[in-house]
Design a protein that fits this description.
heterodimer; A: 181 residues; mainly alpha; Arp2/3 complex 21 kDa subunit ARPC3; two-stranded antiparallel sheet; 6% strand; globular; B: 266 residues; 2 strands
């Protein structure tokens, strides 16, 4: 019991560091023409951790990664960028872990990942609805805000989530095939 | 390449701000960042800006390094500022063909930009004067009261210190694996979106496999040295509040209250 727990905490710490490193190494634009909507593979270690160690470890890894992100001085507006990133990744990881942790069959893992992706998109919709007028554009009209959210934000989060889902599933089952997880 | 990936912005000098207790610094910066959003006037923000600049001078950082820390948000900053200036309705002060600048727009642009700049200034001051170890220690001390609510504060802080320790190691490892795969003909970041994503798999898998075996070895090594989660341990570094810390709290709180209540003069 004690050994298992210590190992889980160590693994969670290393996965958080790995997530941060991957974020810096693998940044690429999601839509080649719009270079500002970038994505990276930093979420994959977090999702693997959430499935393998449980939903609360998922949140913990996401939190630690964003703390590292904050320390490195990254993110739009320092604290704000890291905080919003934590809400997004934390939701994704928690939902995914909550569904897939108990029984890690292929169907369960895929359901967890897809449910997590949808949950993240919904949560980010509301977070942006609150944050965009509050921090960036106080005078934005409701119509313009909705246009941005539905036209750019939601498709972006869905695409990012789908990519994460696909890669996490591939990586998770390759690790399992090698009996490592 | 190394410098760009270095974690943190810690500068090795010995200023007054470096000597402050990390707990005090974390709490002060955190509350400044939260309460920043309650300031309603540009004058208030200007006062805080002057305060932040004097902190930079006190911390013996050069202003060029502060502005370098602003670079990631520069594009966002410009975009929001330009957007506010041109698209806010109100009293016209300048008009040329289709470009219309209003007083309200200009004011809003200054207001939003100074707030974003202040946010990264305060974060920069914290991370440039506090080393990673100090930050974890401070953070651990701050969350340890949460134990009452059965919050696993020790696990969390252990996780944070492990991850801090492993970031440089993993950077090197990722770099090495990437180069090894490239020498075998792997191409990163080329082709369509799916291809791009797939091209990172030969990097991801070895990294994750190594992470798993590293966690095993680390847990065994720590256990064999008698490490048990939840046992009372003595500390190598002790944190103590000094007179300097009380002065820092008093100054920050008074500057902040002043910024909050000051009337708009511009």
């Amino acid at each position: 019991m004690q050994h298992k727990k210590l190992r889980a905490v160590m693994l969670a710490g290393i996965l958080a560091a790995l997530s941060f490193v991957l974020m810096r190494f693998t940044e690429f634009p999601l839509i080649p023409s719009a270079s500002f909507l970038k994505t990276d593979l930093g979420d994959i270690p977090i999702l693997i951790g959430a499935v393998y160690l449980g939903p609360f470890y998922g949140i913990g890894i996401a939190f630690t990664k964003d703390l590292l992100y904050l320390l490195s001085g990254g993110g739009g507006g320092g604290v704000l960028g890291a905080f919003i990133n934590f809400i997004a990744t934390g939701t994704f990881a928690f939902v995914c872990g909550a569904i897939a942790y108990k029984k890690k069959s292929m169907a369960n893992v895929l359901t967890g990942l897809i449910a997590g992706m949808l949950a993240m998109t919904v949560v980010m919709f509301f977070v942006n609805m609150w944050a965009v007028p509050k921090f960036w554009f106080p005078k934005i009209t409701h119509k313009d805000l909705m246009k941005y959210l539905i036209g750019i934000n939601v498709p972006f989060n869905l695409a990012k989530g789908a990519l994460d889902t696909l890669l996490t599933a591939i990586v998770f089952f390759s690790l399992r095939k090698r009996n490592k997880i | 390449m190394k410098a760009r990936f270095a974690l943190g912005q810690y500068t090795y000098t010995n200023s007054l701000l470096h000597k402050l207790d990390p707990r005090v610094k974390i709490l002060l910066v955190f509350s400044l960042v939260v309460f920043l959003f309650f300031v309603r006037t540009i004058t208030g923000y200007l006062i805080l800006f002057v305060f932040a600049c004097s902190l930079v001078v006190l911390s013996k950082n050069s202003f060029s390094s502060v502005f370098r820390s602003l670079r990631p948000i520069l594009l966002l900053l410009l975009f929001t500022a330009v957007f506010q200036i041109f698209f806010t309705p109100g009293r016209l002060i300048f008009e040329w063909r289709f470009i219309k600048i209003t007083a309200e727009g200009l004011r809003l642009a200054i207001y939003i930009s100074i707030r974003l700049i202040l946010l990264s200034f305060f974060t920069f001051i914290l991370t440039s004067t506090t080393s990673g170890i100090e930050l974890t220690d401070g953070f651990e001390a701050l969350i340890s009261p949460l134990k009452i609510f059965r919050f696993p504060s020790e696990e969390v802080s252990l996780m944070i210190s492990i991850s801090l320790r492993f970031v440089p190691v993993l950077f090197e490892e990722a770099d090495r694996i990437m180069k090894a795969q490239m020498s075998r003909g792997a191409e990163f970041n080329k082709g369509s979106l799916v291809n791009r994503a797939r091209s990172f798999l030969p990097l991801l898998l070895p990294l994750l496999l190594n992470a798993l075996s590293r966690a095993d070895r680390l847990a065994i090594a720590m256990e064999s040295r008698g490490f048990v989660i939840g046992k009372k341990r003595t500390r190598y570094r002790e944190m103590k509040l000094s007179g300097l810390d009380y002065v820092a709290i008093a100054i920050t709180v008074s500057v902040f209250v002043f910024a909050l209540v000051v009337k708009e003069i511009v």
